[in-house]
Design brief:
Layout lengths: L2 E8 L4 H4 L6 H20 L4 E7 L13 E4 L3 E2 L15 E2 L2 H13 L5 E3 L6 H9 L8 E6 L9 H16 L6 E7 L16 H13 L2 H11 L11 H9 L6 E8 L4 E9 L3
Parallel strand pairs: 1-8, 2-7, 2-8, 3-6
Antiparallel strand pairs: 1-10, 3-7, 4-5, 9-10
Bound molecules: fe (ii) ion (FE2).
Amino acid sequence: MASFVGSFAASHGPLIARDWLTMPAHRREHFTTTFRELGRRFTETRPDLLIEIAPDHWSNFFLDNLPSICIGVGEEHEGPPEPFLKDFPHQHLAGHPGFGMHLLETALASDFEPSRSHHLTLDHGFCIPLMRMELAQLPPIVPIAINGIEPPFMSIRRCLAWGRLLRQAIETYPGKLRVAVLATGGLSHSIGEATMGAIDEKFDHDCIRLFAAGDDNALAAYLEDALPRTGNGGHEVRTWVIAHAAAGSRGFELIAYEPVPEVYVGCGYAAWQVAA
Ligand SMILES: [Fe+2]
């Protein structure tokens, strides 16, 4: 059987790549050090498979067809379409159709109805953390794209249920695989709205406290109340909720948090690691 080896989470603001050479040096050092530590911890779990959860930024879906959640079941995924990611170091993004279909079947058998795609494009949301974590090589990826951009959204309760379902799918997969989960997005940011650029540090610290405490009811109640009042990018924290529940809601370890106005994002990084 497959085994769950840990969940990880990181922010993915596009300017972490686009403005890499022009941002102040101390910011570049912060990103380098922190993503490198995340990559070190990820590599330490020796994953054979990565389930990566990120919001789609109109790269795969638009208003004519906008699933709340879509599982990438393809043999291979398309690389990032953004011109500022032309130097993305991983030319080949292998999928894992066996696990992808198992996850899809497990979901449908449990009364979840995700969308599926045999050809997903992995945009900056998926690729910036993979690039900045300095991974020598990528394991096969089963991507899960969620709607974090256009309301209405999946409830936080449903995100928790999705996380538990991921764990169930991992533990029932009939193959010897070490499976890691990586969530990307958040924490607070505000894009293309009146509060553009605002970082809500109170929201970020509240999230960190609640993820660390591991009380799902308190986490869900807080997020349902607070998300409509913070910047629109905060909705991406749903990916963290899924990773949190996949790890058994056991409380996470914060690797770093820093509000970075140059990239418009309250940048957070975390690990829910299990013993190797
Ligand atoms: Fe995003």
